[in-house]
Write a structure and sequence with these properties.
Layout lengths: L3 E7 L7 H13 L3 E5 L18 H12 L2 E5 L9 H11 L14 E7 L7 H13 L3 E2 L5 E3 L18 H19 L1
Parallel strand pairs: 1-2, 1-3, 3-4, 4-5, 4-6
Length: 187
């Protein structure tokens, strides 16, 4: 049986963001059953229909990665009760047809969402906005369980690295449920 390939899309472009650290913990949890790779997309330009066809090289690169992925796991921060502009721009590019003959690459992809924040919201509001958007794009969204971790600063070690002291079981549950969800959608 083919090994599952999951692409992690992190809404923060910061090199060592909480969301990147959370994705790396998820990668470790999944390592026995799936490959989780982080999508690097900081080089994707703002969407501009003046140069949509042919797409810029960075856009073509990320589209190819999404095409061969079995599923997408979004790790989204919350900025002013919304997901980031960088993530919105990426989704805008991915939602556009590749050409007159090739559709967009998100349709039908299984997806889930997680978030972590120093504050108390746990990114729930941003997650709701993100789920609305990716549902509109005909992605297969696993709505339960979603993970929204508040008070991230309480789950850091002395070096400022995320340790998920209290939230690890919740991430494990989401990871296991997501693997089952993707398998179901592949049948």
């Amino acid at each position: 049986m083919k090994r599952m390939k999951i692409t992690a899309i992190i809404g923060s472009l910061r090199r060592n963001s909480f969301h990147r650290q959370l994705a790396l913990v998820a990668k470790e949890l999944l390592k026995e059953e799936a490959d989780l790779e982080i999508l690097e997309y900081a080089d994707v330009p703002f969407l501009n229909q003046d140069y949509e066809y042919p797409a810029p090289a960075a856009v073509s690169r990320v589209r190819k990665i999404i095409q061969i992925s079995d599923a997408l796991w979004f790790f989204s921060p919350e900025y002013n009760h919304f997901f980031s502009g960088a993530l919105k721009n990426l989704i805008d590019w991915l939602s556009r047809p590749i050409s007159e003959d090739e559709p967009q690459v998100l349709k039908g992809k299984p997806a889930t969402v997680s978030g972590i924040t120093p504050g108390i919201s746990g990114t729930l509001i941003a997650q709701d906005h993100l789920v609305s958007l990716i549902s509109l794009l005909n992605m297969q969204v696993m709505n339960q369980p979603r993970l929204a971790i508040p008070s991230a600063l309480q789950q850091l070690d002395q070096n400022g690295e995320l340790v998920l002291s209290t939230s690890l079981p919740l991430l494990e549950k989401q990871a296991n449920e997501f693997l089952n969800f993707v398998k179901k959608n592949q049948q």
